[in-house]
Specification:
Number of helices: 9
Bound molecules: flavin-adenine dinucleotide
CATH class of the largest domain: Alpha Beta
Largest sheet: 5 strands, antiparallel
Strand content: 15-25%
Shape: globular
Number of strands: 19
CATH architecture of the largest domain: 2-Layer Sandwich
Helix content: 25-40%
Radius of gyration: 21 Å
Length: 362
Amino acid sequence: MKSIERDVALAQLSTMGVGGSAQFFCKAERESDLRRALDWAGSRGHDVFILGGGSNVVFADDGFSGLAVQLCLREVEFEEADDHVIVTAGAGVDWDTLVAQCVERDLGGLECLSGIPGSVGATPVQNVGAYGAEVSDTIAKVRVLDRSQKRGAELYPDHCRFAYRDSLFKSHEPGRYVVLSVSYKLPKNGSPDVKHPELQKRLEEAGIEKPTLAQVREIVLAARAEKSMVIREGDENARSCGSFFVNPIVSRETADSIRASWTGEGSMPCYEQPDGRQKLAAGWLIEQSDMPRGTRAGNVGLSSKHALSIVCHNGATSAEIIELARRVRAAVDARFGLELEPEPQFVGFADRWPLDGDDDDD
Ligand SMILES: Cc1cc2nc3c(=O)[nH]c(=O)nc-3n(C[C@H](O)[C@H](O)[C@H](O)COP(=O)(O)OP(=O)(O)OC[C@H]3O[C@@H](n4cnc5c(N)ncnc54)[C@H](O)[C@@H]3O)c2cc1C
C-alpha cells in the first residue's frame, strides 16, 4: 500500500473539479493494500470512501473526513472459450481503454458504451449504460471484498440486482462491497447490436449498412462528443459528472397525463420499458421547465449542449452545484409534478441526499 497521505485535495480527483480535502487518502494497487487500508481505517474509527475515476461523484466543499481509497488494480485477462471470451479487468482499469481493447479484438457487447469516463470497478455500481446497452448485458461475474464479512466473494448477475442505473452496490447495500474485478462475457467476432434510434440514424446517414464494432465505437464517440459527453480539454462543458439526474421511469398513466398537459411543439420523448412502464427524458423535462441548456448560476450552469448535465466553471463550489440542482428539480416538479432523482454520489455532505435537505445542509 502506498503510504496514507493527509489532507489531499479531492477536486483534482473528480471530473467536476470541486470539493475540499480528504482527511486521509491512499491508493490501493493490490487487494492486500485495500485490506490493510480498511483495517487501518477500521481500527481508528474512520469512514471509508472507495474512489474510482471520480466521474460520478460530487465532493462537499468541506471535504471528506475519513479515508478515501482509490483502487488502482489494473490487471486485464482474456480467457478464451468456444464462441466467446471472458474478459476480467481489475477495478482500477480505465473503462474506455478496456472498451477499445475489446473492440480491437473483435469482441462485441461493449462498443455502445464507448467514451464513458471512469473505472471498471464502478461500472457495476450504477450499471453503466448508454445507447441501449448496459454493462449488466455482458457482466458474468463481479469479484468483491465484502466489508461486512471481511472476505472476498464472487457475485453473479442474479445477486447484483441490476436495474436502470442501479444495483445492489448502489442502493440496496451501499458501502458493503468493494468491487475488485469485473468479468464480462463477450462474443467472438462480435457483430454490433445497434438498438438505439440515434445510432441507427447516424449509421444510415453515413451509408453504413453492416457496421463493424470499430465503426459503431467511432459513431458513438462522435455522438457523445457533440453533446460534451466525452471529456475533452478546452470544452466549456468539460467539468461535469455526465447526466446529473436519471431519466424518470413512470407508469403509463403518469406518462399519458404529462403528455396531455404538454402544449408545446413536437412530441414528448418516451421509451416503453419491458415491464410496460415509460422512461421519460429528464433533459427534455428540464428544458420544458424553463431551464434551457446553457442556463448559468454563478460559477455553475447547465451544459450548453445538454440540459441534463450540470457543469462547473472557474471558481465553482459544490454548494453552487447543489443549489442549481435543487432549482432544476423544483422547476420540473412545478411544471410536471415529477421529482428527478440525482445520479451521482454525494460525498462528505451532512446528508446522503443533500438535494432533499435544507439549504444549511450544504
Ligand atoms: C462526461 C461524462 C459522461 C458520462 N456518461 C455516462 C453514460 O453515458 N452512462 C453512464 O452510466 N454514466 C456516465 N457517466 C458517469 C460515470 O462516468 C460512470 O458512472 C462511471 O462508471 C463512474 O466511474 P468512476 O470510476 O469515475 O466512479 P467514481 O465517480 O469514482 O465513483 C462512483 C461511485 O462508484 C463507487 N465505486 C467506484 N469504484 C468502486 C469499486 N471498485 N467498488 C465499489 N464501489 C466503487 C464510488 O464509491 C461511488 O459511489 C458520465 C460521466 C461523465 C463525466
